[in-house]
Design brief:
There is one protein chain. By secondary structure, the chain is α/β, with parallel strands linked by helices. 31% of the residues lie in helices and 24% in strands. Strands 2-1-3-4-9-8-7-5-6 form a nine-stranded mixed beta sheet, with helices on both faces. The protein has a five-stranded parallel beta sheet with strand order 12-11-10-13-14, with helices on both faces.
């Protein structure tokens, strides 16, 4: 029986998933230590399908609470025969749903089902051509040779009973295998990374053809689900205080919460002296005047600048800014007797980069002021309707909700604002000159019509002074760095090449119009090894 002939059994959860507020049917991703777990999730979401990530120790717990339609076992750095190999519950293979094992996941599944895994004669890393031998299952519609991304030191040398070869390479005879009767598939390569030529098709085939899902994770269903979750959490008389920055995330979160509970939402916009040009005016006009939302403007510039005085460590900056934000919210919340909830625009990548949220081995890159840093005495319950979403999903929701395109399409802006774009100590004067330079960068790129293909484009203040000459006089001023990147999700990024004449114009304007800068440099670093922000 081929996978395309495999019947998706009747499951009463299909009916439950169609009811308002019910969890959609989806895929469980078991994170076995890979750095790519979020990429697997993103590819599944791109197939308009819900998914969640869990560590192996919690995989069965997640599976039990989900409307489970399939499982993906990720790659990982360990060897399945090593003493420190992740302990994966065998019961995952007994839940009656399809399973896709990627790299380590394939090796674990093969060994668990009676196959054999050994160290390869030569570690394989990079692009390799595989030959598709069965254009079925995850390879439906794919024939001949295609390029994939390999990264492994072990490989399967004997298949379990019931498994067949679906693709092979010169160095890896079992590059892809499957047991179509059970819906079990394994690939030695990484379909989730962009280097794999048809990776999206392979994952989509698993989601649609093997798991029988229909791609119903769409903006309308996401909005309905999140509104129901907010209502269930907040109740009929609870009130929410939400930090509104005017960026995409907090704006979409505010509109979602407002649709759920109406005027019981109280937005707090904090002017911390670290905002972009015109930010305060835009927020006040858009949400307070046009959307008739309850928005309180709090000028806390002196408080934030006082806290940051003399501070140069990036993590300490973030912690102090996060602390002050929380304190401001706590103070403002006193005006609302039932405001026991704090709304935030936290996104999935925020969680991934800040903490090993799912118990995996992913390293902490940087902390976010709205993730994992709230004090125990806050006495407020978090409301985060975007916590499980990627940026492109949030933008799609924003468009669906009819939010002004100027806000929905805005480039991401860090929670700590300009503080993490001022290397070293933050002062009001440094913030002033950086704000002016940043406005030149953004306005010129947007005027040239080049912003639509960019992820972020901004200015950075480097505390490096150098000698310059202006009007026959010697200057000794700061350096302005231009950071312009392309990305699809912010998890990885590459620098973008702007036209020479545009760079020349931006540099000239900054040097001539912003007193404090006499030198402009271009950051041409990708992520990794760098991050998009400088701090």
């Amino acid at each position: 029986m081929t996978t395309s002939e495999r019947t998706v059994k009747h499951d009463p959860r299909n009916e439950a998933a169609s009811q308002p507020g019910a969890d959609p049917r989806g895929i469980l991703i078991v994170d076995l230590g890979t750095q790519y777990a979020q990429l697997i999730a993103r590819r599944i979401r791109e197939a308009h399908t819900w998914c969640e990530i869990a560590p192996p120790r919690k995989a069965l717990e997640y599976a039990a609470r989900m409307n489970l339609a399939g499982i993906v076992l990720s790659g990982g750095p360990a060897s399945v025969y090593a003493d420190d190999a992740p302990e994966v519950p065998r019961q995952l293979l007994e839940l009656g749903v399809p399973v896709l094992g990627i790299c380590y996941g394939m090796q674990w599944m093969s060994q668990e089902l009676g196959g054999s895994v050994q160290g390869a004669d030569k570690r394989e890393f990079g692009r390799r051509a595989i030959h598709v031998e069965r254009a079925q299952g995850i390879f439906e519609g794919v024939t001949g040779d295609t390029l994939v991304w390999m990264s492994h030191g072990d490989q399967v040398v004997r298949l379990p009973a019931g498994f067949e070869v679906y693709a092979s390479s010169d160095t890896c005879p079992f590059a892809a295998v499957g047991d179509p009767a059970r819906g079990f598939f394994g690939v030695q390569f990484h379909p989730e990374v962009s280097h794999t030529q048809l990776g999206t098709e392979f994952i989509t085939n698993f989601v649609y053809k093997v798991c029988g899902l229909k791609g119903d994770w769409q903006p309308a269903s996401i909005v309905e689900r999140e509104i129901e979750k907010v209502r269930a959490l907040v109740g009929t008389d609870g009130e929410v205080v939400l930090g509104l920055s005017g960026g995409v995330d907090s704006s979409v979160a505010a509109v979602l919460v407002h649709k759920a509970i109406g005027d019981r939402l109280h937005c707090i916009f904090v002017d911390n002296g670290l905002l972009r040009h015109g930010e305060r005016d835009i927020v006040e006009a858009t949400f307070k005047e046009h959307m008739a939302m309850d928005v309180t403007i709090v000028d806390a510039t002196d408080r934030f600048m006082g806290s940051l005085k003399g501070v140069t460590d990036p993590e300490q900056k973030r912690r102090l800014i996060g602390r002050d934000f929380v304190d401001v919210f706590k103070h403002e919340a006193l005006r609302f007797k039932s405001a026991h909830f704090l709304g935030q625009g936290t996104l999935y990548p925020d969680v991934i980069e800040s903490v090993a949220a799912h118990g995996g081995n992913t390293a902490v890159i940087k902390s976010h002021h709205n993730v994992g840093g709230l004090p125990k005495d806050l006495n407020m319950t978090l409301v985060e309707p975007l916590r499980e979403l990627f940026k492109d999903e949030v933008r799609a929701i924003g468009r669906f909700l009819g939010i002004d395109a100027r806000i929905v399409n805005r480039q991401p802006f860090p929670g700590p604002g300009l503080a993490v774009r001022i290397v070293g100590e933050v002062t009001s004067e440094r913030a002033r000159i950086l704000r002016a330079a940043d406005h030149i960068v953004t306005s010129e790129i947007e005027a040239a019509g080049l912003h639509t293909g960019l992820w972020q484009y901004f200015a950075v203040l480097l505390p490096l002074r150098s000698v310059g000459v202006m009007g026959d006089a010697r200057t000794y001023e700061y350096t302005c760095a231009l950071r312009v990147v392309e990305s699809s999700d912010g998890m990885t990024a590459d620098w973008a090449a702007l036209p020479t004449e545009l760079l020349r114009k931006i540099s000239s304007r900054i040097s001539n119009e912003v007193r404090g800068f006499n030198r402009v440099v271009l950051d041409i670093s990708s992520k990794p090894p760098a991050t998009i922000e400088w701090e």
